[in-house]
Amino acid sequence: xxxxxxxxxNNSLVEQFHNLNKDDAEFLKKCLKLxxxxxxxxxxxxQLIEQLKGLLIDPVPTNREYGMQxxxxxxxxxxxxxxxxTQLHFVSDFxxxxxxxxxxxxxxALRGTLALMSFNxxxxxxxxxxxxxxxxxxPCQQQQQHDRLNIYKIFQISLENRLRELQAMGFDxxxxxxxxxxxxxxxxxxxxxxxxxxxxxxxxxxxxLSEEMFEVLACYFxxxxxxxxxxxxxxxxxxxxxxxxACLCATSEFAEYCLPLALEKxxxxxSIAKFDSLDIIGKGCDIFPxxxxxxxxxxxxxxxxxxxLNNGDEELEKVALDTFVIVMNKLSQNPDNVYKPILSxxxxxxxxxxxxxxxxxxxxxxxxxxLCKSSKTAATFVIAEIVPxxxxxxxxxxxxxxxxxxxxxxxxxxxxxxxxxENADISGNLPLSQVTCLCxxxxxxxxxxxxxxxxxxxxxxTNSLPSDIRKCFYENMCSLLIxxxxxxxxxxxxxxxxxxxxxHGDEVQMYVxxxxxxxxxxxxxxxxxxxxxxxEMEKFTEDILATFFKYCQAxxxxxxIGIDCLRQLLEEYAGNTRIQCYLGExxxxxxxxxxxxxxxxNIIDYPNHKQLLxxxxxxxxxxxxxxxxxxxxxxxxxxxxxxxxxxxxxNVGLVIxxxxxxxxxxxxxxxxxxxxPDLLDVAMKCPYDFIATIACQLLANILNKNLDEEQLxxxxxxxxxCLNKHLENDKLGKAxxxxxxxxxxxxxxxxxxxxxxxxxxxxxLDDHEEAAxxxxxxxxxxxALSEESFCNVxxxxxxxxxxxxxxxxxxxxxxxxxxxxxAIGYILKEAPRQVFIMQFKKxxxxxxxxxxxxxxxxxxxxxxxxxxxxxxxxxxxxxEYLQELLASFIALSTFRxxxxxxxxxxxxxxxxxxGYPMYKLLPLKQxxxxxxxxxxxxxxxLVRKGAVEARLSWIMLDALT
Amino acid sequence: MELENINPSIYxxxxxxxxxxxxxxxxxxxxxxxxxxFDLIRSINDPEHPxxxxxLHVVEDSLIDVDNRNNTIxxxxxxxxxxxxxxTLIGLSIRVKLLRCxxxxxxxxxxxxxxxxxxxxxxxxQLADKERVAAALENTHLIKVINQCIANKIE
Lengths: 961, 155
Known about the structure:
- The complex is a heterodimer.
- Chain A is mostly helical.
- Chain A contains 49 helices and no strands.
- Chain B has a single domain, classed as GMP Synthetase, Chain A, domain 3 (2-Layer Sandwich), CATH 3.30.300.
- Chain B is built from 5 helices and 3 strands; from the N terminus they run αββαβααα.
- Chain B has helices at residues 34-41, 87-101, 120-128, 130-138, 140-150; strands at residues 59-67, 72-77, 107-112.
- Chain B has a 3-stranded mixed beta sheet with strand order 1-2-3.
- The model of chain B has no long low-confidence stretch (mean pLDDT 89).
């Protein structure tokens, strides 16, 4: 009865799985159910085996495989304590037998073996049993990729969990592994192996099998592997190569084979072979015995030398030099009697190349520098041998450019020496001390290039200058800083000055700053400009700013210079709030400057003092921008004073000062006086365009920031009336100009009236060319109307305006209306890049018309520049209209009245030749080349230059190289 | 390949031609001059070294002669060593580059600077022979090397 019952259960289990494919989700679910039953105790593992018995010993391989599938799935999922060691023993025996079974059964048997290996309570002898069975019965490379991977995983897991048993197996295990992986070709498996093998190699002594193991790996070197496009595994050559090199350098037993292999491959002409060889030569330094490196030192050195000296590839040169440093560092572990001869060999070879006008000078110097970096001994040795030689060469060389080259390289030695000894003091090293003298000597030469070179070199090593040399520099600085020099010298001079101030601040204060005496305004200017370079250093900031302040308060002519320099200083350090606060709060700079202006009101006039007024305005803006509302309110009374003095004297220069004060006020800071009528008056009547534009900007700024809606409405109504009066008379241009600025102010804050004013501008465009320029004003980013000046800037207002206005112009364009083409040009001039690309297809027709019909050189140039920008970055939209665009560029390449248009058109043509699909370009090639031949004889040289470049690019399009 | 001249002397490049105000004026005509021709060929690469002909002093401004009225240009070049086997190749590169970059009205002569090469005359003869130059340019290997020499690197 019981037996019958068992049979029933048996049958039911087999029936449950009947007709179920092993890849089915249902299959997996059923297996998991079995595992759950066992884990919960409702059945046992033994019972399961009993139930599966029929399948597991079925004479048909397919059925056996099926049974194994179920059992293996259970083994993979079951909790490990559900199976006793004795049961494991039998199961393992069974699996070891199955590994000999029919080929159809083997894959699942391997999976089961992998599952068994992860059981911690697997009996010791069974580890050996299973592995032996694999080694003896399964020819690994004849299995499928996934099964091979399972075999490797079995090796991996056994190495992790069962190291003791494996070590007991000795060479059998090693030999088994070598045989299994010999000939593997799949990159996924290889990557797995390369990542695992270092662990394996580190734990086993290979003994007589080391050469065999190495050969199995060496056949992959250098890795030659190209990833197919859209490869899902994302394995690339680089990962394979670097993991392989880790394997090759994993054990010191490989040293005798590895270095010769690397050196052989390094001499090949294949660049990846060179990179990989250098990589293993460098990596090997960590593990291979020193003696092997000594043995191959000459070879390594000469090969690396060859790579560096005769090479055009910068990256390879860098890797070669880095490897050189690593190897030489390794060799420095030798006793001196071995190490020194190697060093002297290298140095002697390179010495011969140190003639500054030859090709090998720079690479040889590079090698020597890197040699110095490798060890302290090397640094001392090389410097003692080479530096005196180069110093001598410096003295006998007559060409300044060569002297500079030598000096640059000498200074590099100083830097390396101080880095490696971690000590800036070089007084103990005589040759290097001479280098500092050379720097001083060079910086006092008459030849400008040499002087500049000398100063530049000095600035790099100011930390290491001995005190007597520094003293000489200080003395010279006192006169050099304030005397007139070409920029070529001035720039490195200031760099040295700054560098000295950083390293020896007190000395600079005492011997330079305290000693300088100024005799005229030119000297003053240069003195203040010099001070600007070190103002950021905390030690000097306050003193220097006080000095500037003092000069700004001095008599009129001196103050002009002081204020000019102060403006430059503030612009240079626009991000430095410490400087702004000190000037603004502590020194009360802005009110003082206003007092200065009001005091000298009878002298100051526009345009004679345009610079001064502009400087004061800029300074005020920078300082006000960072001030709080309360501080600004404090200043507002001063503003009113300026305004009233403008009203009484009509000195238009004061408009500039007013702009500086008012345009950066916060929105809630209100002025007592109402200046809109004054500004309109200036904008309409002022004969100076510069002032009129400032008035317009300020007007727009005030309208934009006005918080009082009612007042704004009134202002707008009043302005409109005033402007309408002028639209008929000769002031039309100015009126359009002003109304463009007002439109901009409204559009920026997203005001409802913006649309009304825009429409008005478009209506004006029908009859008046001047209106086209208005669109430029609206599109242009203007610092006077920015968030920095607390203006109301709606997000993406320019983009929105661009979209709307270009759509409108494209729709309404008529043959008769040339002004639309102008307007498009002005809009494009300032259009944001991204939105231009987005809108490109919609407006391309009118843009092409503009290129064809417009005769205005300025506009054509603007449009060409915008298109050039898109072509240069190979935007997809340009590819679509390649033919049309190219045709209009070719037409413009002979545009008579502007050479700049011709040049730009040629540049566009040139950039079309690169980065576009060849099949689109080739049909056009002959045509382009023929047309460009005309431009080669253009009357302007610069155009010819552009034509040459464009034509060559097109000729080289499909040329063999 | 072994280099014939391992460590050649390098000379400083001359600075870029300054742009004069009259060159920026659309109305004034700029005539071809020797410096303009020099600027065309100075950047040609040496077949052996990653250096330009200018850096090796193979071509020099002073060895170029332009006669605008008669539409002729004469370029003399100096091989780095008297036995340089690359002399013809360099000459060809100069010729091809000028062929592509000058208006067709000019007749261009490219010759070796007298006394600077062992087989000066035969090289000159080869370079002057239109048929031979044309034949050389049909040779795919040769045109490849020449294209590499005159390819202007796009920065």
